[in-house]
Amino acid sequence: MTHYSPQTIPQPKSQVEDTALEAVNLNIHYGSFLAVKDVCLKIERNKITSFIGPSGCGKSTLLRCFNRLNDLIETFHIKGEVYHENQDLYSRHVDPVQVRRRIGMVFQKPNPFPKSIYDNVAYGPRINGFKGNLDELVEQSLTQAALWDEVKDKLKQSGTALSGGQQQRLCIARTIAVQPDVVLMDEPCAALDPISTLKIEELMNDLKSQYTIVIVTHNMQQASRVSDKTAFFNVEATPKGKVGYLVEYDDTVNIFTNPRQIHTRDYIAGRFG
Amino acid sequence: MTSHLAESTPLIHAKPSLGQVLDKTFIWITRICAFSIAGVLVLIAIQVGIEAIPAIKAFGLGFIFQQQWDPVKEHDGITGIYGILPMIFGTLMTSFVALLLAIPIGVGSAIFLSEDFLPVSFRTVLVFLVELLAAIPSVVYGLWGIYVLIPLIRPLGEWLHEHFGGFFLFGTSPSGPGLLPASLVVTIMILPTITAISRDAMTSLPPELRQASIGLGGTRWETIFRVLLPAAFSGIVGAIMLALGRAMGETMAVTMLIGNSNTVNFSLFAPGNTISSLLANQFAEASGLQVSALMYAALILFVLTLLVNIAAQWVVMKVQKF
Amino acid sequence: MYLSRKSSDARSIFNKAMTILAGTLVVVALIPLLAVLSYVLIKGFGRLNLDLLTKLPPPPMVPGGGIANAIVGTLIMVGLASLISVPIGIGSAIFLSEFSNPTTAQWIRFATNVLNGVPSIILGVFAYSVLVVTTKTFSAYAGAVALSILMLPTIIRTTDEALKIVPQEIRWASLGIGAAKYQTVLQIVLPAALPTIVTGVTLAIARAAGETAPLIFTALSTQFWPNSLSQPTPSLAVLVFNFATVPFKNQQELAWAASLILVLLVLTTSIISRFALRRKTY
């Protein structure tokens, strides 16, 4: 389990604003094709929110809107707004690079840089012009990612030499080293074995006191284990193609024991996937 | 104490941040580098063309058909008569003889090295060795040609001239440098091009093609001749065209072996000249109109190789979309 | 047995014959390689001694001397050429692989391949008219410029391939942390592709060192130490050309020795590059 030294006990952020991220009438387009329609969603601070739903419902696409990573796709554009700290992330003057420093992402397939473990974690702080004690920051990040004990003697080893589960925790350490507000996770355990998955789920629970976490997952049991709030998305066929939409969003315990929408009920019961 | 990095810079700026400016600059620098390639090509054409203008004005298209190349002869008030018919002949002759020999050897090797006649490790070594042929500098081939190849083929040449002297290819007696040694060395130098690209064309064929033919009862060589070669045909054609381009531009070995005589002679043993050898021999000491005439010759060579290479690239590009 | 085929059957004979023919052709292709390498090794080796690497070329018929000035000249000009072509080449490849749209990239790659096919003598002609005529002197600069144009396509091609192999996820990870594009390219993508890029540059250098045509009327040659970058400069490749055609045995021997050095350079870089390219990071 993780150990905190007295200096690193996290301070809770002010409770004035409880919403970390908000999507308002968000419609996601690729060219003229509408991929996800009309999402209105408030992600609460310091909670774990999970996006679940059948494949093709746009949950990963929606996730990538929160850190402007969809910008890399040429035909992508949105209608509607995405707010973080009362700022519209898609307003004209916003620099996507700055957005990504506040909203980090962990990907489905672990993708450590072909550098040493230390340099993997130090990369983010370095490019941000971090002036403090880098060693301390690296140790703290690796500790929070439940990886420090396993790698503290081999920080110079290549990040790619670790096992799958360790690599993913390294990627998490790398992401939190820049101290973002929000950590987005796109099916982070999909490529891992059950034991590594469990470690990461425990880790998420420890992290939420300092970060807001949004996780996309195919695994309903994981969502019910790990998240505080759950958003269920579905896909519907239209003449133009398949469009994703938000069906229901509530506390996890409600979604799984007492869903209000029939599609949610059917999905939870495993009637489709 | 660690600091909160993200909050140190505001999210919204009225003007672009340093990072955005650096990004834009970086992309522009790389863009300029990339476009400079096309720029260089255009520049070469323009520069050589401009320098060639005096000679073009003086001789026009007759340059191509004129056999004399004499920098001191007076003619119509101009000092020097220039024509490159013998050089064009030499360039084309050496290239075609080289292709004639290199195609069967190259394509045959490509076939042998793309099928599994030999275990993979052997094949890799042989492929590497054939590629090595291309790495040896042209001038080393020239040196070897002078002291090893020419003495070697002399007896053969004399025998051919004695017995088949009537045949136009063997019309003169071998006197050392000539079309044949030059062509032979060019053959060696373009072999790797033909082999490598033809081999690529054959190995990138879908395995289903081979399986279909074998499945119908075809033998290995029937499959090769009737199915694989036709399918890889455009790739092989591209390889040959690239090799032609290389052969026409080949300079040093040819200069050292061709004899530098400005005559048109169909005998393989007669000395001759090529456009590239002309340039190699004369540029250093040329002046006045001669320089312009040399530029004109260079322009013609440039255009010739450009056309062949563009056509070859186009063919090879079509094939690589397999 | 209706399922067996007699080995004396026409089809079988044809197959065997063709296999033997094809194998023979491969042998024929490799005989010149063996011949050239062995002659250069034998004739050059005999002339290898310390003097070769430290002394100036002797006058005709005088024994001794060396090709030290040519070695230095080659180093200088290939070095200069690398200074020009490596940044431009890598920059172009970065644009092709990271920033340009597919159509533009296709055309630039096409242009690169066309440039690769331009005869090296034409590059010499170009450098001659742009630099030698205007500065009224043969120079190492002119030679280096011609060589740099020669090296560009090789560097661009190998760097392009090297960058293509770096997985996309690595770039996303870097961007996801909030790195700018130039940081991602310079600190993550380029280092990952570096071994292959270095191999490509090494191959380009080896090729440039052996090229004569771009130098014979740009840098010309001298019998003395190179003393200025804007003066004629000797080189190994031009030395081979000059000494190959003189009737003086002592100078011919130097030509073989210089050839040996060039061939060894080319051999080692080819072999090393083969191994280096095998052990890619991905």
Structure in words:
The complex is a heterotrimer of chains A (273), B (322) and C (282). Chain A is 32% helix and 27% strand. Chain A is α/β, with parallel strands linked by helices and 273 residues long. A 10-stranded mixed sheet of chain A has the order 5-4-1-2-10-9-3-8-7-6, with helices on both faces. Chain B contains 12 helices and 2 strands, in the order H-H-E-E-H-H-H-H-H-H-H-H-H-H. In chain B, strand 1 and strand 2 (78-82) form a beta hairpin. The model of chain B is unreliable at 1-10 (pLDDT under 50). Chain B has 322 residues and is mostly helical. In chain B, helix 3 packs parallel to helix 6 (179-203), helix 5 (138-164) crosses helix 6 (179-203) and helix 9 packs antiparallel against helix 12. With 282 residues, chain C is mainly α. In chain C, 74% of the residues lie in helices and 0% in strands. Chain C has 10 helices and no strands. Chain C has helices at 10-45, 50-54, 68-99, 102-117, 120-135, 140-165, 168-176, 181-209, 236-244, 249-278. In chain C, helix 3 packs across helix 9 (236-244), helix 5 packs across helix 6 (140-165) and helix 8 packs antiparallel against helix 10. Chain C starts with 9 loop residues before the first helix and ends with a helix. At the B-C interface, helix 1, helix 3, helix 4, helix 5 and helix 6 of B face helix 1, helix 3, helix 4, helix 5 and helix 6 of C.
